[in-house]
TrEMBL record:
Source organism: Nakamurella flava
UniProt name for this protein: DNA/RNA non-specific endonuclease
Domain DNA/RNA non-specific endonuclease/pyrophosphatase/phosphodiesterase: 40-259
InterPro entries, A to Z: DNA/RNA_non-sp_Endonuclease_sf, Endo_G_ENPP1-like_dom, ENPP1-3/EXOG-like_nuc-like, His-Me_finger_sf, Non-specific_endonuclease
Catalytic residue positions: 106
Length: 283
């Protein structure tokens, strides 16, 4: 089974916002058999790091006005699976996750993708389980029901600001000294960038409000992969996009680095600040 999804929509917010690109080019990305580097799914796209066999970036769109509840479109019966459009050897599968506390962690969250007409939302539900969208995360990192800030950022933005649509970029941060487990270097940090426009969307054709972008970085502890890591060992920071670029080696669309929200973070924090609770985020 494969997907017919058209992927991340650059024009989703009423102006074109490109996905991330490598500071030194995209030479570290997996080249697809048909050309290009972007694997497209329903409501999201993935670019894989060819050496690490995990996503370099995932880009997705969220329409808060047409989202389905996860109970209405359940995950029951869906299995994680490799994508047949690329070699099995280019993606990490179940061999990493068996018999340990590592979750098969969605980068583009399943709940974020369940929007639009039901058939489209169901296709996105299925697509979210392809391994290119999955990374090794400790279970307390990945399960937002355990009150982690990271898993609730998108929900908080939709609930507290009147924003109807969000575009999101996320992925692991690769380091040369990442701990190796079952011959796979496990990322210790993950980034997430939320892009939105202030104010309400009256219609899909009539966006309003100033473009905003907020960048976050989470560091997880692996605790030797012997026990479940306590939540308080996870650290979430808000960063400027400039600081994030230096950390992850990715360039973000210039329209995002010019946003007022990014400037406010720079002035208030000198580049980054600790987020201990969702109330700490000033949307």
């Amino acid at each position: 089974m494969t997907t017919t999804g058209t992927g991340y929509d650059r024009d989703f917010l009423g102006l074109s916002i490109a996905p991330p690109a490598g500071v030194d080019g995209d030479g570290d990305l997996l080249q697809l058999p048909g050309g290009g580097t972007e694997l497209t799914y329903t409501h999201f796209s993935v670019a894989l790091h060819r050496g690490r066999r995990l996503a370099r970036w995932v880009a997705w769109n969220i329409d808060g006005g047409t989202r389905w509840d996860g109970d209405d479109i359940p995950r029951k019966g869906l299995r994680f699976r490799t994508d047949s459009r690329i070699p099995v050897t280019a993606q990490i599968g179940d061999e990493l996750y068996r018999d340990n506390p590592l979750d098969r962690g969605h980068l583009a969250r399943r709940a974020d993708l369940l929007w639009g007409p039901r058939a489209e939302a169901e296709a996105a539900n299925r697509d979210s389980f392809f391994f290119p969208n999955i990374t090794p995360q400790m279970d307390t990192f990945n399960q937002s029901g355990k009150d982690g800030v990271w898993g609730r950022l998108e929900n908080a933005l939709l609930a507290t600001t009147g924003v109807g649509r969000i575009s999101v970029f996320a992925g692991p941060v690769f380091a040369d000294d990442d701990p190796v487990y079952r011959d796979v270097p496990i990322p210790l940090s993950y980034y997430k960038v939320l892009v939105y426009r202030d104010g309400l969307w009256q219609t899909e054709q009539a966006p309003n409000g100033e473009l905003q972008a907020r960048a976050f970085l989470l560091t997880q502890t692996l605790s030797g992969l012997r026990t479940v890591s306590p939540l308080d060992e996870f650290v979430t920071d808000e960063l400027t996009l400039g600081a994030l670029t230096e950390r992850v080696g990715l360039r973000f669309d210039p329209a995002l680095t010019a946003t007022a929200a990014d400037r406010r973070t720079a002035v208030a924090s000198g580049g980054s600040r600790r987020i201990r609770d969702l109330a700490d985020v000033r949307w």
